[in-house]
């Protein structure tokens, strides 16, 4: 991309003058005003690095932390095309918050790219959450940037038919229902004039570039969490000269959009070893992986019947859950350090025929069968999967006790979504010398240590911090890592510590009353 400094500006003015002289010839052939406007627009694109975004509704604001410290900043929107490859594309808005550093001489600004739903600007509005970011603000400006489509209701399809009762019984039933939902969702998005093809990692990376260009920031650092790291690596690939440093937590590389089932199986074995070390728990559960197998076998013979609330109607309904449904529920929470302490008790109680804890976990995840997030599905599928990787996934799924739940619903939508052709595909493995800090929880089976080490092979200047006892959601927020090691890295210091510790996992006893987890009533 071209970026012109002030010293180069007169050269472009001179070039524009040549173009204006050329207008004399065409004066009697076409509308002079339209031609001048057209040529001037080309000139403006040139001096702004062909940025296709502009700032709108920007307001200065003072943000407050929980300790009453006031942070200067601004809040606004970046207006960009939904699909930069379509001249007729509708415009969409990407919300951002730019917080000013409290340092006397701040370093390159840090752009935070969230995982999950992709929203992060709310953290600036929350005094308690903003307080957690002070260690970054002591080094650099901080920019929260929401993912495109985060607040657009038109990008979510809600199932209109009867509740799909068979969804939680088997992978085949879930795949059939999700394929049907996908087909209906695409028709609905088209009727709403939504171009879902515009929601991919390349467009996301250009959003970051365009926001930085609009803010007149030439160089910045990336802090990406989970899918935010996926986008961050795309920015590193497309705009390497703009990136000062990169911090990637719970990192998911663009060639790892679909996951290996073996990671979930290995996680069960890891938890089994942890249960063995708990003297009280191991007395009731001497072999945790064997307990998991028995629970899955029991569900295959006799599905669990539970009572949950339909989120669309608000009415209670009975729901039958088989091995696939339970596996799906389990894989979404089994690497969260907040839920891991309750997992052995969940398994134990289910084998006893008590499904009260299962009801809580199922209620949290029931929306999977009722909605299609257009931007999320496309972003994941647009990253693609190589034939070799997919063949390995299928082979592992056949051998896994959980089938291919680690890739649901993307595996279900894969063959029913629109054709995907990124304007500039990512390489199979990113290669870069940008200084990069990887952060991974040892209890993370979504983006496990082994997968991150695979990604790091293309990074010639990287350090990997493993956070012991942290799941996918917790690794970034281990306080020593966030408060000390990340600021040290941003300042250009040498990070030699490669292991930190989250709080120790304390399993909940299999019996007795406790308030240690909301699933236990």
Record keyword descriptors for this entry.
39% helix; two-stranded antiparallel sheet; disordered N terminus; ten-stranded mixed beta sheet; 19 helices
Fold and architecture overview:
This protein is of the alpha/beta class. It has helices at residues 9-26, 32-47, 122-125, 127-131, 134-137, 171-191, 201-214, 227-238, 262-276, 279-284, 288-301, 323-333, 343-351, 356-365, 374-383, 387-399, 410-413, 449-455, 479-490, and strands at 54-64, 70-81, 91-99, 107-113, 140-145, 156-158, 220-225, 243-249, 304-309, 316-321, 371-373, 436-441, 462-468, 499-501. The strands form 3 sheets. A 10-stranded mixed beta sheet has the order 1-2-3-5-4-7-8-12-13-14, sandwiched between helices. A hairpin with a 6-residue loop joins β9 and β10. α11 (288-301) packs across α13 (343-351). It is globular and about 60 Å long.
Write the layout of secondary structure elements.
Layout: H1 9-26, H2 32-47, E1 54-64, E2 70-81, E3 91-99, E4 107-113, H3 122-125, H4 127-131, H5 134-137, E5 140-145, E6 156-158, H6 171-191, H7 201-214, E7 220-225, H8 227-238, E8 243-249, H9 262-276, H10 279-284, H11 288-301, E9 304-309, E10 316-321, H12 323-333, H13 343-351, H14 356-365, E11 371-373, H15 374-383, H16 387-399, H17 410-413, E12 436-441, H18 449-455, E13 462-468, H19 479-490, E14 499-501
Parallel strand pairs: 4-5, 4-7, 7-8, 8-12, 12-13, 13-14
Antiparallel strand pairs: 1-2, 2-3, 3-5, 6-11, 9-10
Helix pairs in contact: 1-2, 7-8, 11-13, 12-14
